[in-house]
Structure formats: structure tokens, C-alpha cells
Amino acid sequence: MKTEDNKQEEKYSKGSLLEVFLVAFRLGLTSFGGPIAHLGYFHHEYVRKRKWLDERSYADLVALCQFLPGPASSQVGIGIGVIRSGLLGGIMAFLGFTLPSVLALTIFALFVQGFDISSAGWIQGLKIVAVAVVAHAILGMASKLTPDNKRKTIALFAVIITLLWQAVITQVVIIVAAGLVGFWIYREQKAPEISHIHVPISKRFAVICLSIFFGLLFLLPFLRELTSIHWIAMFDSFYRAGSLVFGGGHVVLPLLEREIVPVGWMTEEAFLAGYGATQAVPGPLFTFAAYLGAIMNGWGGALLATVAIFLPAFLLILGTLPFWGALRSNPHIQGALFGVNAAVVGILVAALYHPIWTSSILSPVDFALAAVLFGMLVFWKLPPWTIVLAGAIGGTLINLI
């Protein structure tokens, strides 16, 4: 006789790989608006419409992915694919959701390179789009992640340290320190009630995934120094970005900029233009890596950068799903997460100033365009693709004045 748990596991773990891919592919074509909007699309499609998960299991999965570094919405999609159809289901869900934006951004990068239009007015417009988008992201994140003075103070120190100490390891140090501070300040925090998510992955396999994650994180920098091979250096930079960034696609911007621009792999103008273009496509913001890789090394670079930046997300979600219940029941973990999320807000504020503001707002008319785009996002609630279109047109007009 089947128990209730067995019935639930059977209900949520069976499904064809083609079905998982096609549903995710449709979401990848239509999911505009960033990670928070993606979670809304996922909830409508996977929970309400298809009933692959119940409400409580979906909420727990979202909580896990918010806890982990990397692209939260992509990790939720991977997790749903795993729960539905196992490991291959996770891969199909990932491919379906990311493929449309990867192809679009790779083609855009090759177009930019082939026609040498880096000085065009609409490129400046796309850079100004990045100002409006990141400012909007900061407002939304700050209201949720820094609700009290303790977390506001953590965010303030993160801003100051990020701006005054600009090194490759700065962001890592800030996140670790903020986690320790949150661990101490919120040590009495009550853990939320949890529900059990049925995952067709063994704990042994999960441990292997976590071992690979940490092994690559520490091994790749040494291989980079020993070999001086460009492809290994690229893989290392994008892998670390995907491994160490909390808060989603907007927060990866400063880390990637410090990894790529100073070493001469591309100009800051091309970097910010691609970030602006990324706002015009659906799917995860981490596919910005495909644009960067294509600028550096064509289609091969796009593929390598995409795999490298998303691989940590795969390894972490597969490595933690079987243990999430025990983690969430620990109040100290919740406190550390509070500190980390507050630091993310501070890092994003610093990124808004440099490199985004300092490279994009060069005159009063640039600021005026940024204000209009910001108003379109915040007050008029227009979709992101219209913001990008308006920014490109505005930048062209400014260039003609």
C-alpha cells in the first residue's frame, strides 16, 4: 500500500523530458522582467496551471534558491525540472529557459563586433538604460532585504568598503563578513516552518556535486596561474562570478566588470552596452555572460562563458536540495542569510555609482534621459523591452543634438 508521501513523490517526479523542455522553452521566450517576475511566471505555470508542485513546496524551493549564490530564478527552474524528471529534467529545464536569450545576446554581440558600432548614439542609450534598471532593482531589493536599521547599517558598510577597496576579492570578503555579522546579530531568529520536498537525488550524489563545486572554485585559479591558457582564465572568471554572487543578475555586474575590463578582454563601453541589451531579452540576466563570451571569442566563447557561469548554480541546487529541510530549520543559517542579503544591497548601490553611473551619465541630458527611463519603469510600470527601445532611441537623438 502506498503512503501519502509516496503518492506525492510519484505525482511530482514523473514527467517526460520533452514536456519539461517545451514548457521551459516557452517561459524562456516570454519571461521578461527579471528574477522576481520570473518566479511569478513559474508559479503560474508550474504550480497553478500544471500542478507539478504544491504551494508550500514551491515556496520552500524559492527560499532555498534565494539562500544560494547564483541566478535564483534559473535555480528554481532547474529544481522544478529535477523534481519533475530527475537530473535530466533539470538539464532540460535549464536549456529551455536560457536558450532563447543566449542565442539573442550572442547574435547581438557578433553584430556589434562585425559593424564596429561601439560609438553609436544608441549604444550610449543602452548604457543609460543600465542606470535606470539597476536603480529600480536597488529600490525593490532594499525594501525587502534591509527592513530594519541593523541590516541598513550592514548595507551602508558594504557600500563604503566596495567603493574604497576595489579589488577582486572585495565582494567575497564583504559577503563572508556580512554573513558572520548576521549570524551573530540574528542568532535568536526563529526559523520558519518547513515542508518536505521530494527530490529524486541521493544524498551521496548531492555530496559529490558539492565537492565538485568547491573543488573547481579553489582549483581553477591555480590552473589559471600555472597554465596561462586564455580559455582556462575565461572559465575561471565566469565560474567564480556564478559561484560568489548573491542577489541575482544585477549583482554580478561589478564582479564581472572587474574580471573582464581591467585585463583588456573588452572595453567598458562594450560591457555596459551589452548589459543594457540584456534588459531587452527574456530569460535569466546571467545570460549576459553569453554576450561577453561572444565579444571575446565568438560562438565558442559564448558557449564556454554560459556553461561556466551557470555550472555553479547546477552543482549547488543539486547538492543542497536533499539537505534543505535540515538547513532551513537552523535559525543561525537564517541570520547569516539576513546579513548576506543586506550586503548585496550595498554592493549593488556601489555598482550603480561605479562603473554604471560614472561611465554612462556624462551630461545633464544623459541624466534627463535616465530619469525618464526610471519613471517609465517605476511609475508607469512599462515592460523592460520598451525601456530598452526608448533608451536606444533617446541615445540616438542625443547624439544628433
From TrEMBL:
It comes from Evansella alkalicola. Belongs to the chromate ion transporter (CHR) (TC 2.A.51) family. Pfam families: Chromate_transp (PF02417). It is found in: Cell membrane. The keyword Cell membrane applies. It is a multi-pass membrane protein. The keyword Cell membrane applies. The chain crosses the membrane at residues 20-42, 87-110, 122-142, 154-185, 205-226, 238-256, 302-324, 336-355. InterPro entries: Chr_Tranpt_l_chain, Chromate_transpt. Keywords: Cell membrane, Membrane, Transmembrane, Transmembrane helix. This is Chromate transporter. Its main location: membrane. It comes from the Bacteria.
